[in-house]
Structure formats: C-alpha cells, structure tokens
Amino acid sequence: MNSEPAADAREAARRAFLKQAGLAGAxxxxxxxxxxxxxxxxxxxxxxxxxxxxxxxxxAAEARPCPPAATAEERAAxxxxxxxxxxxxxxxxxxxxxxxxxxxxxxxxxxLAADFGAGLAVLEDLGDELFARAMAGGTDEGELYRAAADVxxxxxxxxxxxxxAGYGACWPLLDYDAVALRTGGELFVEWxxxxxxxxxxxxDAAFEWRDAWAPIIARGAAGANVFCHRDFxxxxxxxxxxxxxxxxxxxxxxxxxxxxxxxxxLSMLLHDARRExxxxxxxxxxxxxxxxxxxxxxxxxAADFHALGALNxxxxxxxxxxxxxxxxxxxxxxxxxxxWRYLDRCLADPALADVAAWFRRHVPAEAR
Length: 368
Prior knowledge:
Number of strands: 11
Order of helices and strands: HEEEHHHEEHHEEHHHEEEEHHHHH
Distance between the termini: 39 Å
C-alpha cells in the first residue's frame, strides 16, 4: 500500500491548521520522537515572537481509548488501549489534563490552539531543559528530585476529579483498575519470550504469574485515589528554576493520566529506565515526599512502592521487549539491564517473596 497520499493529506491538514492559527509563515523544526505515534515540531513565528510547540497526533494511528462504562469484555474487544486505559494519544485528553494541572498551580504547557478531531494543537514552549539535560549540565540531582516530589505531593493532596476539563476539552479520569494493572504486567510474560526464545516460559508460568501478582494488583486498584501523570520521569520533566515552588517543574506527556495509587508515579520517577537512580537518591526522595505528606503511613507507602514498583518495572520490561520485537526499535534493549537492577531492589522486600520466587523459577538472573 502506497502511504504517500496519506502523508500528503496529513501535511495538508497540518498546513491548514497552522494557517487558521495564524502561523502559516512559521518556520517548522522537527523534534526528536519517542515511543508513541505522536510527532512534535518547534514553531518559530515569522514575526519573531517566542517559539511554540506543534503537536501532531493522527487520530487513526491508535486503537480506541477506553469508554468510561466499558466492561472488561468490551475493553478486551476494543484492544490494548482500552484494556490498559490509555488515551490513544488524544489531543483533547492532553488539553483537559493540562487545564487541570495548571489550575493546581503547576507548569503544564498552555494550549494556544487546537483541533481535537484532527489531532493537532499548538502549545506553549517550556524549553529544552529536561531534568536529564539539567543534571548533565551540573544541576544538583537531589534538588531536581525534591522538586519532582513537590509536584507529586501537590497533585496527590489535591481533590481528584472524576473528569478533567480545560481548553474546551473534557476527559474522564478513569481508575487504573485491576484490569489495567494486570494488562500492563502481562506484557512481561507475553513479550519477554519473544525477545529471547531461550526464555520461553513453561505452561504453568502464566498461571503462577497471575497468582503471585493478584494481591499486589488488588492493593494497587484499591489505593487508586490520586491523579497519576503515568509517565513521570526525567525525560518528561523540565527544569524551570525561574518559577517558584512546584511550578519549577515543567510537565510533558500527561495525556494518559488516570486515577491511581500514589506509589505509581513515585515508581515512574525513581525506577527510571533511561537514567540510573541510586538507592541513596531513591531513599532521599521518598523521605522528602513523606515529609510533605505526614498524613500517610510511611511503612505502608514503602511496601506499596516496592510492590507496585516491581509490577511497573515488569510492565516496562515487557513494553520494551514489544518495542524491540514488534516495532523494530532495538535501542530499548540498552535500558533493560537497569530495569532488572531496579526489579531486584524491589524484590529484596521480604513481603514480595512469592513474586521473587516466580522470577527465580522462570527467569533467573543468569537467563536475563
């Protein structure tokens, strides 16, 4: 099938949208992509005004998101996005979440123009100073991670809405429920054997996997009570030191937000596949977060961080295996050894003995 006509039509839609937004003469600079079907450009308006960001998410590039009232069976029929409660990259999900975050005093990009049906938007440009770049440039990592914990504490102490609203968009904030948690975790048993055929699992492994994770998934679903960014890590956080308080952290890629357990975004931050987070930095960041939320039971939070962190890491290992095998993106192999180290750190918790035993039986260290 020749894809050129479709590509030409998409470019025509981009140009028409930019013309309507008064940006027909802007210079367009492509930006690096990620693991999604979105693409971004930096726009330099012809009049010399500040740069902007152009978001392009073709609506047909993703399976449908999850209808709020869908049953587990209906979600299975719709596909992975509905099962995992992903937003399918929808621009209206981004705009609604951005509006809510900004209403909480946080630095999400303003949405300056949008066509939700076409999957196009012009956003405020928060710059290029990602946490990862700031640290490479000498900014103290402890300061950055404390600032990130400030953001999570602000979000987690806010009243969690049933629906997000902003910039003319509304989007349901669905629970990261047992179906979604299980769906993410099972990427591991589905895709790791495809990445390494020698890791082929015995027939009983999948049944044992479900049994081992069942109580952890139940805890995650029962504790789903805060806004969860869902992709909260150093490549999606920008350092804005000229701003004050939690607003010093710019937020990106939050369109898949759900209502989830507070430990989930803590795991995303501290079990970062793309950069090493030391045990000392992990402990210091968790301690700072607990100081900001004295109402929490610290021991329970630590236990949930280990348990749901282990599930999250297994999910990401499976996701990266899928990106390599199905999508032909071998660069994700380089991140996997770090994820195994994080997983071992979590599984050192004696409360996770059943999960640790599963890995010893089916994917021992020497088979990784």
